[in-house]
């Protein structure tokens, strides 16, 4: 456990040493604030009378946040292992009393902690609404859980892909491709039979997120994200282990 | 008295795809020993060092560090290893202090023990003034020092250094050599290098590896021979005679032309012909201006083992052959 925290701490520290993390935080905050403002404008239109502010503004904002994270996450995960390889620091880690599982879990924990921070900053905006109006806190909690689960599965997928290459650029674009396919895979089933459509819909990262955004807390959705994260963490461990033995 | 064996490598083999990098390599290193690892580029030095430090797994064979097998109990074994790869494994965006603290924590040091260890290793590598500097802004030599500091911060019993003196200036090289001598008192050190004189001045044992196989494993004393009873000397003559005149002297086995006026004279076994060469040189007015003991035996051995026989060697037999050829023309 100590080792996992050590790796996670080192990861976070180095993230904040690079301008990339700060700029990503700033840009994400700015973009989401813009959408937040537009959503409030939209809510204020007389045509939308009768809809709850939580459904329109808060869920709408988290929906956008999910899409923005889809674009930004590959940039944050691309250097997780590629950079260790390029700079040779992976040799320091491999020659230290540290198991590969601890290394991967530490990396995952580090990047997830960063995502958690982003989430807190984003959530300050809907929290500001609490001064003026009551909100459906249940729905917000479900949406928050959804977003953190979504982001941690992005992190696991990105971590695995960064274990495959030593080029950050390749890791970033491949991660983006994989995330995007998993995002829209439900569209692939629209013209097929009901059973096939259900499978594709189940595989989509988006469908499960939408459920949670609407305040439907279904444990199947939570388990889905946990399984995705677990799968890619295990694959990353295997990949590094194989590199040691066969690479 | 035999001291404790700290590294035990037996029958290591490793291939990358079809490429055999290391084949059936076995050796032991005792406490207090500095083992010099020599070999041409691509001979398998780095691979062997990486296998010993647990970065790469061997296809066959086993490594045990201070009694712990690196595959069965990797955490215990790796606690005793400090490794400096060819390219120092540095996080360029950290400061020297942050980096060394991280490296020490990785090896399980905590609390006051930790800061003490970092201070000592900085002192040993001459980094006292650089603690708060960003590693990225350091010069190559200083980066190398940080790499060494990282390898010794937890005072491991086994220190493995892959070309530790590359990129350092002569003063730093001397400092690092002194440091390694100091470290070897109660640790064992493996170092790979291209610089033969470094091995000669530093190591107690030499391991030459060629095409993945160990071709020589000998203590440096055996290799350098008895300095009081040399096998060969280097002489410089202003008016050099024909080589056969030198060959004609008692006890001279072969003569090698190093440059126009300098020769390496190899003696027959057990005979020191130095005296007779000097007498003859004075008598014949050869203009003897230089007479050096030959400390190139390591270089010769290295060349012979890694490239086959040295072609510039002229022995008495083939010299006669050459002469006959010229007469016949």
Quick check: average pLDDT of chain B? 82
**What is the CA-based Rg of chain B, rounded?**
24 Å
- Indicate the structural class of chain A: mainly alpha
Please report which band the strand proportion of chain B falls in: under 5%, 5-15%, 15-25%, 25-35%, 35-45% or over 45%.
25-35%
Q: What is the CATH third-level topology name of the largest domain in chain B?
A: Rossmann fold
Helix content of chain B: 25-40%
Helix content of chain A: over 70%
For the residues shown, what is the average pLDDT of chain A? 90
Q: Biggest interface and which pair forms it?
A: A-B, 23 and 31 residues
The fraction of residues in strands of chain A falls at under 5%
Helix-strand makeup class of chain B? alpha/beta
Q: So what's the overall shape of chain A?
A: globular
Name of the CATH architecture of the largest domain in chain B: 3-Layer(aba) Sandwich
Terminus-to-terminus distance of chain B: 63 Å
How many H/I helical runs of chain A? Answer: 11
Short description:
The complex is a heterodimer of chains A (247) and B (329). Chain A contains eleven helices and no strands.
